[in-house]
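Quick illustration, no need to memorize.
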Amino acid sequence: MNVNKAIILGNVTKDPQMRTTPNGQNVCSFSVATNRYWKDKDGNSQKEPEFHNVVCWGRLAEIASSYLKKGGLVYIEGRLQTRSWDDKTKDGVKHSRTEIVAEKLQLGPRPSGAIEPSEDKPEEIKEEEGEEEIDVDEIPF
């Protein structure tokens, strides 16, 4: 059995970049910073940042592009993928990059006063016709 799973919770380092592949698939890439905290042998608090490249595809790419902003908190679950290529401009120098291909994305809390990107105010949630109202006293737990 094999497992390839990455889970990070950190801050977006710059606004996501959305692109479309030649076959029409949306792809969004951004970087997330996580911090490791510890105390050194003298008892002083230490912090070490780590930067992760993240790639989202399809609908997840659209969501990331619309709602993630630099500094925002984001939770990512996905898989690690390493790709490599030859640089045609630098005499064929080989490059490689390890990325987290996102499978789940959860947005952190919005700053107070934030609004939806395409609306001036949040949309009201309306009860659909035929739905019963739930009585809290009837919940069995």
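The mean pLDDT is 83.
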